[in-house]
Automatic annotation (TrEMBL):
The gene is fhs. The lineage of its organism: Bacteria, Pseudomonadati, Pseudomonadota, Betaproteobacteria, Nitrosomonadales. Belongs to the formate--tetrahydrofolate ligase family. Keywords: ATP-binding, Ligase, Nucleotide-binding, One-carbon metabolism. The keyword Coiled coil does not apply. It catalyses: (6S)-5,6,7,8-tetrahydrofolate + formate + ATP = (6R)-10-formyltetrahydrofolate + ADP + phosphate. Pathway: One-carbon metabolism; tetrahydrofolate interconversion. This is Formate--tetrahydrofolate ligase.
Length: 548
């Protein structure tokens, strides 16, 4: 059996101008980055924004992640290919992979099997340099703060809240001591406020304004100090100008894809860039986008942050599940997941139902279940999931796009088009803008996570009081483990009787939300004991191996 990278390297890719032509884009509308990658020009993006959106927006999300994998990105790509294969013009909108998980847990994040975006080596490693530009802009601001203090501290910094970032898992940088015993640290780039701003800004002017609104510290009186006080936003925008142009690539089947921006959903808001999504909605009839990790994180933030700020609303959701992951939630360990365990599968279905009910009842979305098929799934296991999903009033479709590409997701594509032809009551958000921050957290905790309530550390309680005025009207971005509805990654399935434990609150004025750091989650992840990097290498001819 070929590996993901072997499949990708054996493929014959279309020249990028052929992909652009499918979208009706002239040669002046994009800038080539080699033969198979392009960036839409800023003029093209601006022109597209002036046109009415024509596409249906499809949100792909998943059950709670497990070590067995769910295949959310693979399903997004396979569904896009299946729609195009059936004659429905579609394109994918995805996030760019962070090198943290590429070298850490995952080894890559461009799909798998015969449902991949390509060229996968470039996309997984550096791509067009967007993340480097975001890191540079973030760290320029940090350098300007230090420089300002060094040269007299005219703004009267008493406290500096701005942190540095890099696109790599390095736990040693979580806490750093500077001169004069000043404590700071690094976040991974995908968790930085600059990344969030980059992905939520509507244009270069909005990008600049948001960067200027970043609160970087406070003076002795407790008054905020902003990036604009340092006149930093212009230079930061200059670093981000080219990166802000969406990246055009293709799937193995030649479907167009915009891959742009990449915040994590466990510690950030988990959605690709707004400019990419809005552009896609004017270039195709169907846009398939992905929200990171489980629906309790990615889909909730897609709705309550991205949709709230942009006015976008998805027309339908696709919830990805696997038999293996459901058995894991039912208590089976990874080493035994290839064996049939109907009782464990039955128990694990509770996780699927909770996510389905959240999407449908809390957010008002029609939902289809995509059962991402693995070769060891038995007929009895698939039938059990299908019967349960039908009994709850939803539809399930077995998907084999990993092995078969577009044809493997054809049933899902047909059902999706049928669903989209029906009237919908309309998507809604989990809470109103004018609800207090503490109540927003409580609503998400109770309604989405099934928690009994919220508890604040003493530090978070003080921050909640201090942020009372500044947080008015802002949504909350919960940073917590992706592996559980609770704050404890070991609590599988649908835990009950748990409490959302808020350790710290961070105001992201430029991004337009408040981050609630919960449990033991870290905004600078560490590498696992056996990182994926040990499998990655380069042959004498320059061919990369080991990515997945």
């Amino acid at each position: 059996m070929l590996t993901d990278i072997e499949i990708a390297q054996a493929a014959t890719l279309l020249p990028i101008h052929n992909v652009a032509e499918k979208l009706g884009l002239s040669a002046e509308a994009w800038l080539p980055y080699g033969h198979h990658i392009a960036k839409l020009t800023q003029a093209t993006v601006s022109k597209l924004q002036q046109q009415p959106a024509r596409a249906k927006l499809i949100l792909v999300t998943a059950i709670s992640p497990t070590p067995a994998g769910e295949g959310k990105t693979t399903t997004t790509i396979g569904l896009t290919d299946a729609l195009n294969h059936a004659g429905y013009p579609a394109m994918a909108c995805l996030r760019e992979p962070s090198m943290g998980p590429v070298f850490g847990m995952k080894g890559g994040a461009t799909g798998g099997g015969y449902a991949q975006v390509v060229p996968m080596e470039n996309i997984n490693l550096h791509f067009t340099g967007d993340f480097h530009a975001i890191s540079a802009a973030n760290n320029l601001l940090a350098a300007l703060i230090d420089n300002h203090i060094y040269h007299g501290n005219a703004l009267g910094f008493e406290h500096v809240s701005w942190r540095r970032c890099m696109d790599m898992n390095d736990r040693a940088l979580r806490r750093v001591t500077l001169d004069h015993e000043v404590h700071t640290g690094f976040d991974i780039t995908v968790a930085s406020e600059v990344m969030a701003i980059f992905c939520l800004a509507t244009d270069l002017q909005d990008l600049t304004a948001r960067l200027g609104r970043i609160q970087v510290g406070s003076n002795a009186a407790g008054n905020p100090i902003f990036a604009s006080d340092l006149q930093a936003e212009g230079a930061m925008t200059a670093l981000l100008k080219d990166a802000f142009q969406p990246n055009l690539v293709q799937t193995l089947a030649g479907s167009p894809a915009l891959v742009h921006g990449g915040p994590f959903a466990n510690i950030a808001h988990g959605c690709n860039s707004l400019v990419a999504t809005r552009s896609a909605l004017r270039l195709a009839d169907y846009v398939v986008t992905e929200a990171g990790f489980g629906a309790d994180l990615g889909a909730e933030k897609f709705m309550d942050i991205k949709c709230r700020q942009s006015g976008l609303r998805p027309d339908v959701a696709v919830l990805v599940a696997t038999v293996r992951a459901l058995k894991y939630h039912g208590g089976i360990e990874v080493a035994d997941l290839n064996n049939e365990h109907l009782d464990a599968l039955q128990a694990g279905l509770a996780n699927l139902k909770k996510h389905l009910d959240n999407l449908h009842h809390q957010f008002g979305l029609p939902v289809l279940v995509a059962l991402n098929h693995f070769s060891h799934d038995t007929e009895a296991e698939v039938a059990l999931v299908d019967a349960a999903v039908q009994s709850w009033g939803y539809q399930m479709h077995v998907c084999k796009h990993w092995a078969n590409g577009a044809s493997g997701a054809s049933d899902l594509a047909k059902a999706l088009v049928t669903q989209l032809s029906q009237a919908s009551t309309g998507a809604r958000l989990a809470y109103a803008d004018d609800v207090a921050l503490e109540e927003k957290l409580a609503l998400v905790a109770r309604q989405i996570y099934g928690a009994d309530g919220v508890a604040f550390s003493p530090a978070a309680q003080a921050q909640l009081h201090a942020l009372a005025a500044a947080s008015q009207g802002l949504p909350v971005c919960v940073a917590k483990t992706q592996y559980s509805f609770s704050c404890d990654p070991k609590q599988r399935n649908v835990p009950v009787g748990h409490t959302l434990l808020v350790r710290e609150l961070r105001l992201a004025r430029g991004a337009g939300f408040v981050v609630a750091i919960c449990g033991d989650i870290m905004t600078m992840p560490g590498l696992p004991k056996q990182p994926a990097s040990i499998r990655i290498g380069v042959a004498a001819d320059g061919k990369i191996s080991g990515l997945s």
